[in-house]
Amino acid sequence: MPPPPSPPSWRAASNATDKRARTRRQSRSSVHTRPTFVNEAPFDAKAAFTRYLPQLPEHSSFGGSEAVRRHWQGACDACASCAVVGASGSLLRRADGPLIDAHAVVLRPNWLKLKGYERHTGRRTTLNVLFALENMVDQFVKAQRKLAQPQRAVGLVTPSSKRSLNSYLRYLGRIKYNKTHGLHQPRADDAPLFLLSDSLWMHATRVLCDATDGGCVWPSRSSTMRPSSGFFAVLVALEACVNVSLFGLTTDPCAPFHYYGPPKNSCSLAIPKENDEHVHWFEKEHELYARWQREGRLRIFS
C-alpha cells in the first residue's frame, strides 16, 4: 500500500528551505569550495580530506553521483516518498512494515535490528544514518555483508563531533590502504559510508537553536547541542523527498524505549538512564516533528 500523499503545503515549505542545507554530503567539490569544515570542532577540510579525494563522491547530490548510483539503484534527489524509521517502542503499536517498505526510500538511524520485528519495522533499508564510532562502523559493515548486494544500504555518517569524524577518517584510511581492522578486511563490494556535510550540520543546529530560544532553553545537564542521528535522517528526507513519513519517532510512555528492548515496569515518559544521551534532546526533536506535521511537511504514523 503506497503512503498517503503529504498535504500540498509541502511545496511551499520546500521552497522556503535554506538552499545551503541541500548540500547533503561531503564531496570533492565541497572540499575545494569550503576550506573549513564547520562542526563542534571546525577543522581544515583540505588538510583532512585531500588524501581521500578519490574516495569521496564527486557531487553532493545523490542522483548526480556515480559513486552513489553504483550502490543505490534509482538514486534520486527528488524521491517520490521517504520513510524515516526510528527505534521507538511506538513502532509496536502498529503493523506498518508493508507500508514502510512501500516507500521509494527507507532511512534508518543507527543500529539495524529488524529480524523478528519485520511486521512493525519493514525489511528494506536504503540509507542508514549513523554516528561513526568504531563499533557503529563495524556493525554497519557486518550487517551489510550479510545481505545480497542489491539489498545493501548506503551509510551516511553524521558530521557533528571530532570523535565521529576521526573514526570516519580512519575508516577512509583502511579502505585506501586496504588495512584490516578487527574482523574486517576491506572488500571492493562493501556498502559505502559517505559523510553528511557541515552545511547540513549547521542547518540542523540552527533549527534546534531557533526552537530553544537561541539555545537558552536547553537541558542544563549538557552544554552541547547535538542533533541526533534520527533528526539528521528526518532532515535528509525532508530535503530529498516529496512525501515524508515518520515511524518509530514518537514517545510511547507504556512501550519499551526501543522496540527491541525490555518492557517497562510501569508507564513513564522518563528516558531510562541507560538510554539518556545527554547531548540530545529527543523531546524537543519530537516537538519539531509534530510542528512539521501541522505545517504539512511530513506525516507521523508512530
UniProtKB/TrEMBL annotation:
Repeat in keyword set: no
Single GO molecular function: sialyltransferase activity
Gene3D superfamilies in the cross-refs: Glycosyl transferase family 29
UniProt-listed InterPro entries: Glyco_trans_29, Glycosyltr_29_Sialyltrsf, GT29-like_sf
Annotated family: Belongs to the glycosyltransferase 29 family.
Stored PANTHER family: ALPHA-2,8-SIALYLTRANSFERASE, SIA-ALPHA-2,3-GAL-BETA-1,4-GLCNAC-R:ALPHA 2,8-SIALYLTRANSFERASE
Protein name stated in the entry: Uncharacterized protein
Species the sequence originates in: Prymnesium parvum
